[in-house]
């Protein structure tokens, strides 16, 4: 057991560093992409992913054993190793040489940037100006290409997000809980959040820092922290309207805690949360002033409303139910897909709920500590609130996508879970310190390590869209983008456009600017009929009955074999359909091709 105290922490650091080194060697050996790849996971050998995962888990175990031995001499090095692995993962699109990462909203945000470059103004319909002003300023100040800035912006925002948790850990916890917090906080739980250029995402990534600023402004009574907090909250309103209201919700909960602490906890905390009401008023006044101005400018209440809170749609559960009913997968495939998409949320959700139950017991036994306010009570309440919002928006038909609330729930879970875990590991910690670790203690440690392994495994393999989660990679290739630019230059804008695997609307935004009117280009996009109508017609041209362009990307062509190989009888298009379209359909003329993009004309 003395060996445990003295060497295990070092051993796990060496293992972590070795696996990290091996993964970097693999990155250097494999050349960048030459075109569209539907899965970033298929590019690298399994050993690469094994190395990344075990490097992270080994660093976590080093932190754990340092915590148990109560002499965490190398804790900061273990934490930095986890961060370095995180950086390898979130920089993969750049390492792969992707022209752009993001095919949907990212393209439209590039369009907002084009408006700024073309006119010098943010535009009359830009509800999210802050991120566009920041990105355009970086382009002007650094001289970098706008696409380079868009590709790097999310990664550095994510690094700031991860380091903000370090600031929270330093401020909220005592030494023992601090190292447990460093185990949980760097886990990349939130899929594309770390790599997507989007205002809502940036608002999420700022949440830990704003929580830290609010705590410091209350505990240190420092003017500097108060000023930084006010600047951050005012900026949030111009970042995304929904995220600003989420911060209002946070301060409402804080205010309710303050005015009901005697009833809820039979305790009065030293920290004064009355300023939460002032912050609510500040955000609300700026929010309604800004959005009233936007409505006056747009003169379109429907467009304004949609931009404010999003487009309404059916429930995610309803969509999944319909898909399951159509595809009829077996139970094993269904469970596998569920955990592939949401595995880390399921595991961390169970842990979070368990910790909330523990908090309820603590409250009932009147064992609330002063430092529990920010480290346990407030984040637990926000976790439950956003978890309920996630579940209700997942099940019901709402204007918000449930995925908007999931990251918020687990940001708060990351804050309070270390406090609860510390309470549950105290017995084991004493056993380790006294050199008498029981079999039950060993079982608990092994279980804890397996839980960490599973969370890191699932969060690694759904960090990017891929066939693993039945969704295609968000890569936008240079050939696709430049091919579409050529097409828009030469097309007849009276002809209809059909597309597959690509959004002409989004790319038009990115090339010409969000404020440029479009002709014969619809937001939803128009897709071709199943099998191009070959089951009833000899030519695709017989189906369209008018002059039509058909734009086919490599993504669209390989979609069904790559994502749904086990459901061939459900495919809307077969490889033979594309072969006939390209080689033997006399009514269809291929007018452009560059490997990743084919454009056909039917007159």
Radius of gyration: 26 Å
The number of helical elements comes to: 24
Binned strand content: under 5%
Distance separating the two termini: 81 Å
Q: Can you list the strand order of the major beta sheet? A: 3-4-6-5
Question: How many E-type strands?
Answer: 6
The H/E string reads: HHHHEHHHHHHHHHHHHHHHEHEHHEHHEE
Please tell me the total number of domains: 2
State the shape.
globular
Largest sheet: 4 strands, mixed
Compute the average pLDDT.
86
**Main structural class:** mainly alpha
What does this structure look like?
By secondary structure, the protein is mainly alpha-helical. The chain folds into 2 domains: 99-469, no CATH class; 477-602, no CATH class. The chain is 66% helix and 4% strand. The chain has 24 helices and 6 strands. It has helices at 2-29, 46-69, 75-90, 92-95, 105-119, 129-142, 146-172, 175-184, 199-219, 223-237, 241-259, 261-265, 275-298, 301-309, 316-327, 331-364, 372-395, 406-433, 439-461, 478-490, 504-512, 541-544, 554-563, 575-583, and strands at residues 100-101, 475-476, 496-500, 548-553, 589-593, 597-602. The chain has a 4-stranded mixed β-sheet. Helix 7 packs antiparallel against helix 8 (175-184), helix 7 (146-172) packs parallel to helix 9 (199-219) and helix 20 (478-490) crosses helix 21 (504-512). The N and C termini lie far apart (81 Å). The model is unreliable at 298-305 (pLDDT under 50).
């Amino acid at each position: 057991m003395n060996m445990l105290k003295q060497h295990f922490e070092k051993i796990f650091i060496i293992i972590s560093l070795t696996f990290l080194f091996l993964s970097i060697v693999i990155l250097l050996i494999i050349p960048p992409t030459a075109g569209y790849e539907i899965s970033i996971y298929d590019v690298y050998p399994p050993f690469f992913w094994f190395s990344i995962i075990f490097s992270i888990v080994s660093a976590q175990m080093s932190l754990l054993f340092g915590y148990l031995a109560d002499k965490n001499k190398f804790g900061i090095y273990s934490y930095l190793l986890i961060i370095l692995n995180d950086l390898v993962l979130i920089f993969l699109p750049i390492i792969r040489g992707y022209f752009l990462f993001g095919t949907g909203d990212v393209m439209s945000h590039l369009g907002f940037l084009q408006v700024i470059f073309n006119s010098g103004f943010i535009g009359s319909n830009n509800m999210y100006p802050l991120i566009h002003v920041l990105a355009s300023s970086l382009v002007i100040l650094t001289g970098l290409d706008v696409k380079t800035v868009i590709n790097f912006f999310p990664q550095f925002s994510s690094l700031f997000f991860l380091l903000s948790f370090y600031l929270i850990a330093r401020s909220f916890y005592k030494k023992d809980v601090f190292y447990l917090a460093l185990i949980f906080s760097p886990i990349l739980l939130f899929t594309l959040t770390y790599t997507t250029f989007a205002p809502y995402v940036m608002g999420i990534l700022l949440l830990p820092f704003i929580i830290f600023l609010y705590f410091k402004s209350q505990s240190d009574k420092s003017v500097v922290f108060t000023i930084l907090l006010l600047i951050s909250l005012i900026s949030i309103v111009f970042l995304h309207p929904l995220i600003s209201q989420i911060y209002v919700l946070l301060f409402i909960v804080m205010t309710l805690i303050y005015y009901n602490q005697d009833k809820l906890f039979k305790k009065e905390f030293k920290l004064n949360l009355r300023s939460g009401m002032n912050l609510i008023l500040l955000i609300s006044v700026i929010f309604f002033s800004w959005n009233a101005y936007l409505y006056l400018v747009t003169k379109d209440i429907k467009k304004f409303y949609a931009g404010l809170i999003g487009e309404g749609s059916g429930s995610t559960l309803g969509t999944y139910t319909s898909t399951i009913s159509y595809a009829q997968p077996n139970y094993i495939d269904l469970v596998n897909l569920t955990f592939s998409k949401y595995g880390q949320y399921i595991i961390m959700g169970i842990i979070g709920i368990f910790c909330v139950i523990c908090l309820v017991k603590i409250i009932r036994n009147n064992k609330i500590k002063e430092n529990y306010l920010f480290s346990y009570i407030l984040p637990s309440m926000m976790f439950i609130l956003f978890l309920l919002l996630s579940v209700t928006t997942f099940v019901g038909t709402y204007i918000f996508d449930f995925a908007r609330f999931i990251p918020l729930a687990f940001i708060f879970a990351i804050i309070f879970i270390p406090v609860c875990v510390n309470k549950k590991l105290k017995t084991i910690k004493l056993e380790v310190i006294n050199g008498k670790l029981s079999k039950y203690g060993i079982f608990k440690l092994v279980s804890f390590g397996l839980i960490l392994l599973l969370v890191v495994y699932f969060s690694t393999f759904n960090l990017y869209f891929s066939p693993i989660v039945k969704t295609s990679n968000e890569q936008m290739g240079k050939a696709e983008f430049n091919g579409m630019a050529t097409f828009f230059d030469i097309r007849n804008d009276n002809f209809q456009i059909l597309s597959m695997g690509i959004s002409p609307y989004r790319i038009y935004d990115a090339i010409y600017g969000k404020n440029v009117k479009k002709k014969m280009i619809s937001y939803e996009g128009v897709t071709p009929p199943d099998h191009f109508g070959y089951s009833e017609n000899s030519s695709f041209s017989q189906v369209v009955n008018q002059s039509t362009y058909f734009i086919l990307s490599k993504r669209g062509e390989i979609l069904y074999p790559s994502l749904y190989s086990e459901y061939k009888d459900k495919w809307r298009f077969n490889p033979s359909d594309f072969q006939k379209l390209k080689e033997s359909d006399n009514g269809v003329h291929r007018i452009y091709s560059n490997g990743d993009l084919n454009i056909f004309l039917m007159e």
